Structure formats: C-alpha cells, structure tokens
Amino acid sequence: MVRTAVCGAADEGSIPSGHPTSPKERPLSVTEGRRRLINDPGFLRLWAAETISHLGSNFSNLAMPIVAIQLLNASPLDIAAINLADTLPFLLLGLLVGALVDRLPRRGVLIAGDLGRAALLLMIPASYVLGVLSVPQLVIIGLLLGTLTVFFDVAYQAYLPSLIPKEDLVEGNSKLEISRSAAGLLGPSVAGALIAVVKAPMAVIIDAVSYVFSALFIFSIKPHHESVAELNDASAPKSATPRGSLRSEIAAGVRYVFGHPALRTIGSATATSNLFSSIGNTVTMIFAYRVLGLSVAFIGFAATLGSAGGLISALLADRISKRLGVGRTIVLTVPWSGPLVVLLAFCQPGNDLLNALVIGGGFFAGAASGTLYNINQVSLRQALTPPEMAGRMNATMRWFVWGTMPIGSLIGGIIGVSLGLRETLLISGIGASLAFIPLLFGPVWRIKEMPTGVQRA
C-alpha cells in the first residue's frame, strides 16, 4: 500500500530553543542545524511517528502482493487493478484535497489519516479469517486507503515547513528518510519470516498498529511548535485561511506550479520516472515469484538490500547536496534506477541467490538514487513555496507526478499480458532512464543552495 513515499518539551507558548527569531539571521552550519533538530520536540515527535509507521509499512508492502499472488491467484491485470486503486485517488482527488488541506488544521488531517488507514487495514485479516477475502475487496480497500493517503501526504509535506526553518529542510527530510530506510533494513526480512508463519493477511495487523502509534505521536505535538513558517517569512499573510471558492483556489495552485519553472520541470521529470517505474512495478513481484522462482524469504532479502541503499543515501544526502549543489543532485540522480530494471529483465531462473542479489542490487541503486532525488526535490519545493500555498502546491505536484502511476500500472498490466513480463521490464527500464530530460529545460541544474525566499502566488 502507498505510504508516505516520517524529548523534551519547550515551555508552553514560547519559541522552541534554537529557532531563529528573524529571517535575516546568519545561516547555520550543518552541525548547528542538526543539533537544533535533535533538540526540537515537535520535529522529534514527527520523526518518531514516521519511524514507527515505516517499520509497520514493511509488513504490508510485502504482505499485500503475496496475499494477491499466493492466496487469490492474481494475474498481472489483477495486480494492476490493485496498484491502480492504490494510486488512482491522487489523480482523481489530489487537486481538491490540496485546497481542502489549506483550509483545515494540518495536524488534525494527519491524525485522522493514520487512524482511518489503521481501521481499513484491519479489514483484510478479518476478511481472511471469515473466508471472504477477494481481489475486488483488495481493490476497494486500496481505493479507500489511497484516498486517506492523499490527505495525509499533502498535509504532511505542508506541515513540515511549519515545524522547522527552511535552511534545515534537507536535514529534516534526510532524517525522516533515514527512518524509512533503517526500518526497511529490518522490516522485509522479519516480514518475510512472519508471513511464512502466520500468513500474509495476519501480518498486515502490524502495519495497522503502527498507524495508531503514529497518530498518537503526532497528537502529542504541541500547537506552539507550528510557528516557524511565519518566522521564516515575515511577508506571509497573517491569516493563511483561503477566502475564495474551492475552484478558484485549485486553479491558483495549478497556475503556481505550472507557472514556476523549477516546479514545472521537477514535476515533469518525476512524472516520467513514476510512469515507467509503475509499468515495471506491476510485474516485478510476479516475475520474481513465478518466472525466477524466488521464495518469499529471498524476495524479502532483496528488499532489504534496497533499504540499505536508501539508508546510506539518507545519511549522506545533506553532504552530497552541499558538495554537488541541490540542482545537480536532483538532475543526476533521477535516472539511476532505469538501467537496473533493464538488467533485471535478463535474469534467468536456476540460481536463487544470484537472482536475489541482482534484484537486490537493482533495489539498492533505485533506492539510493530515489532517496537522494526525493530529499532534494521535496526540500526545494518546500523552500520555494509560501505557507498559504503549501497544501495546493503539494497536491498539484502529487496529482501531476502520482497521477501517472495508475496509468503506468494499467499499461504495465496490459503489456505484461500481451507481450510478456520481460518485455514489460525492458520498456520500464528504458523509459525511466530518460526521466532526466525535462530537467534540462529549466533552472534546476543551476540551483546551488537551498533558497530562503519564496515566489508568491
């Protein structure tokens, strides 16, 4: 299922220690920024919530395809339908959700999203116990989960800049990504072993519990921690509550993103990468399980290697960004995963360990590049956007870049049935390798440091 793909307390009513009191203060060193985030109670609670949630997500991410393939004998088109349901809400509802999130308390949206997804996930083991689990049911649950994930992801990316200063965004996003990758090192192997013992549907319960704990940590964040956005942008309006109609607010968000050269080209590159990656993702598990004959344990091992790549990149992201520059890091990392998908298409059955290493190496390179790319491009988007536009910017970008994923899933299912699984992987890998091209037609390559100003709508 799609996941967001996140101590001491300061005195009530005061500015958390270490936060700047003026946007004109001197830039902080990397060490100072890290020390400040480690001592920030609001960020630490958000970090704890994401760490627990990502640990739980490893169980669902592995269990859900196994449920469909092993227990329900899912075809490539069935997997495509499940993937389509998971991401379709981003395409259908993303723009509307962005306008709503800019009207609603973002912390409340995050809590409701976590608790709602926990309840939905618990329906899967319940249906399994009752003997009524089916592919259509997984599709419906996927649609509902995807809808709540739209609200959560849009609110989440708009919420982080209200907790920490703009110059700390790369560091903050890096720490959140470290949690995701570190959880992935342990999670897939443990999940694979647990699935073998208790069956895949029951392993989903762990993910549901992780959502509950995530909601509790977010609930514990104090409201006075949410004042950083105004401190970083003295020109921000006193009230961020939109006054126009939802239609006009949605239109303003779309104009802002597609009228901004950096956001427009980042969106185009990410949408291209997601389209072709989704084509390959639709058949990867079926290819590994049915063509290569890999066991769940070997698939979990390969996923663990991928998480190692993400963890290493997350640890080095801030350093790499400062050495190469934010823009160059974005441009150079977006196409890495494509060639490894091409290599995967040529794997042959008969040597499980070698095949697992090849798949794991592809996962490693893809996770490493994707982590570096996402940390930098998300941080750049957050830094460029004024607080009152944050929800609509994130929603428009998600609608644009995640909207290609259900299309890719559908295309992948059709190609997998009509041409074959290897051919689908080849098309996916070649297309993903060319995702950097849109970035050559904008200003992103020339951006060296994270900007501290914004362009208003």
List the SSEs and their pairings.
Blueprint: H1 30-38, H2 41-71, H3 76-101, H4 106-130, H5 135-159, H6 169-198, H7 200-219, H8 228-232, H9 246-259, H10 261-291, H11 296-324, H12 326-333, H13 337-344, H14 352-384, H15 390-402, H16 404-418, H17 421-433
Helix pairs in contact: 2-6, 2-7, 3-5, 3-9, 3-15, 3-16, 4-5, 4-7, 5-15, 6-7, 6-11, 6-14, 9-15, 10-15, 10-16, 10-17, 11-12, 11-14, 12-14, 13-14, 13-17, 16-17
CATH architecture title:
Up-down Bundle
Shape: globular
How many strands in all? 0
Radius of gyration: 21 Å
List keywords for this structure.
17 helices, 73% helix, Growth Hormone, Chain: A, mainly alpha, single chain, 457 residues
Description:
It is a single chain. With 457 residues, this protein is mainly alpha-helical. The chain has a single domain, classed as MFS general substrate transporter like domains (Growth Hormone, Chain: A, Up-down Bundle). Helix content is 73%, strand content 0%. It has helices at 30-38, 41-71, 76-101, 106-130, 135-159, 169-198, 200-219, 228-232, 246-259, 261-291, 296-324, 326-333, 337-344, 352-384, 390-402, 404-418, 421-433. The protein is globular and about 55 Å long. The two termini are 34 Å apart.
Compose a concise summary of this entry.
It contains 17 helices and no strands.
